[in-house]
Amino acid sequence: MKKQKVKKGEFGYPIYEKKKVILLTAVYFLISIAVFLLGYFSTGKKENLLTVVAVLGLLPSSKSLVSAIMYIRIPKFSPGIYEEIAAKTGELSVLYSMYLTSYKLNFPITCFAIRGNNLIGYTEFKSCNTTACEEHIKDMLKQNSLKNVTVKIFDEQKRFTERLTQLQELEGSKKETDVLELLCDISL
Fold it and tell me: The whole model's pTM is what?
């Protein structure tokens, strides 16, 4: 049975992507090593054209290694919390297992939900600076001309689920999709 691709914003995406990036990184390095060894064994010395090709092949390998390191740093999101929240989202537009990056801090967000001009998020990690995350998201929204969006990040699941219930009573807006796409763009 073929495994389904997990898309960004679905629960389990960081784990899926981490495995994929680590595998690709290993393949890239193995290709560079194979090209170097091919040149070395065919000419008997390191100074050949295939050595140059192998060294240039290390550039995408190294870039992929940086991505692998970033995915390894993402904390594991709880499946139990996901199931509890997913049962209460109703018709809201949501994203799960998001890891936002900024110049100074990174923010693991368990769930984002949006309705109208209200964006809320929940983090299960106490180390996440919710105030800095709110400011980062507001700055990104402003830079992308998405104005008048209220942003609130919760670190208490009960308060988040209460706010989820309140959001379900509000009217939707056309900018919800744009906000969710932006969140996907600024996260790993």
Answer: 0.81
Q: Which amino acid is at 128?
A: C
Q: What single-letter amino acid sits at 130? A: T
* Residue spans of beta strands (DSSP E) within the chain: 93-101, 106-115, 118-122, 150-154
Coil/strand/helix, residue 28: helix
Q: How far is CA 7 from CA 1, 17, 158, 171, in A?
A: 19, 9, 27, 27
Length of the chain equals 188
- Distance of alpha carbon 139 from alpha carbon 73, whole angstroms: 24
* Spatial distance between the Cα atoms of 12 and 167, rounded to a whole number of angstroms: 25
Pairing of strands 118-122, 93-101: unpaired
Concatenating the DSSP letter of every residue in 71-91 gives HHHSPPPPHHHHHHHHTT-TT
120-169 pLDDT tens trace? 999 999 888 889 999 999 999 898 888 888 889 998 889 989 888 888 88
85 contacts 111 by C-beta, under 8 angstroms: yes
Q: Report domain extents, the chain.
A: 13-73, 79-185
CB neighbour class for 129 (10 Å; exposed up to 12, middle 13-18, buried from 19): middle
Q: Measured between alpha carbons, how far is residue 42 from residues 30, 32, 79 in Å? A: 18, 16, 52
